[in-house]
Amino acid sequence: MLQAIKETAAFIQAKTSIEPTIGIILGTGLGGLVKEIEIVDEIPYETIPNFPVSTVESHSGKLIFGRLGGKNVVAMQGRFHYYEGYDLQQVTFPVRVMKLLGIERLFVSNASGGVNPDFAVGEIMIMNDHINLFPGNPLIGKNIDELGPRFPDMSDPYDESMIQMAKTIAEELSIKVSIGCYAGLTGPTLETPSEYKYVRVIGADAVGMSTVPEVIVARHMSIPCFAISIITDLGVPGKIKKVSVQDVIEVASRQEPKMTQIMKELISRI
After folding, report:
1. % of the chain residues with pLDDT over 70
2. How would you class 166 by CB atoms within 10 Å of its CB: exposed for 0-12, middle for 13-18, buried for 19 or more?
3. What tens digit of pLDDT does each residue of 48-83 get?
4. Cβ neighbours of residue 134 under 8 Å, at least 6 residues apart?
5. How far apart are CA 81 and CA 186, in angstroms?
6. Per-residue pLDDT at 143 exceeds 70
7. Matching CATH number, 2-269, of 3.40.910.10, 3.40.50.1580, 3.40.47.10, 3.40.50.720
């Protein structure tokens, strides 16, 4: 795999003059942050060797290079999911490549279902922890010592200094945010009432179908991570309703400008 990662990174480096220090992965309905980037180069996923191709309707499938908050960034406009049929190594392959491109920090966004009874639809949750409920781990298999240790520590999956800075920024901008733990499941089904209850009992505040594999791989490579989640629906007893992807996208898109403000300002301050 290392050879494929190096080959892909070399291909991308030949296509752009930008040397990114910040990597960004944008989730469902949350691609609007790209509008804030001073775009220098765009590379469609299908043209990149060894890269998966996004099959999700709401994910556009481009690697964006440019400037945001005074920093050189690379943004994934569209991510990959386990439920698309990719294995966890394929899902996280772009994070490996971004490390070789030079990123020093990773920013991730997602849409999720809230299981914390205090949450409302549209809540913005800064992630401070996660629970891996995928049927595997992207680090299973022979370890690539050049990228990270065999048994990486996960006591601080999300960078505390960035969390505190983001809270300060949200307060300055009068944006309400919560802090919480995200449980990652496979999808593509949304959860049953009992699954929502289970996720809450084991300590999660929200549940979704992404982020956890990417962060595991980033932390394996010692990349500090910041993740933010928009609560698009509720998995709380008495508040569970039928939800479509369109509903998720609508709520995420409505709250996305606030998330964008926080992330842009955070990137400028670090």
Report:
1. 98
2. buried
3. 999 988 776 655 689 999 999 999 999 998 899 999
4. 82, 88, 184, 185, 186, 212, 213
5. 8
6. yes
7. 3.40.50.1580
Segment 159-179 mean pLDDT: 98
Three-state DSSP class for 59?
coil
Look up residue 81 and give its two tokens: 């999911």
Could you give the CA distance from residue 38 to residue 33 in angstroms, rounded to a whole number?
A: 11
Of 111, 110, 80, give the one whose Cα is nearest residue 93: 80
Give the contacts of 171 (CB within 8 A, at least 6 positions apart): none
Distance between CA atoms of residues 143 and 165, nearest Å: 34
Cα 31 to chain centroid, rounded = 11
The C-alpha atoms of residue 123 and residue 241 are separated, in whole angstroms, by: 17
Q: What residues are paired with 72 via a beta bridge?
A: 67
Q: Can you tell me the distance from the alpha carbon of 46 to that of 53, in angstroms, rounded to the nearest whole number? A: 6
Report CA-CA distances (Å) from 267 to 25, 63, 104, 188.
14, 18, 12, 32
Tokens 């969390």, residue located: 163
Instruction: Give me the torsion for CA of 89, 90, 96, 98, rounded to 10°.
Output: -160
Of the candidates 100, 191, 209, which has an alpha carbon nearest to the alpha carbon of residue 146?
100
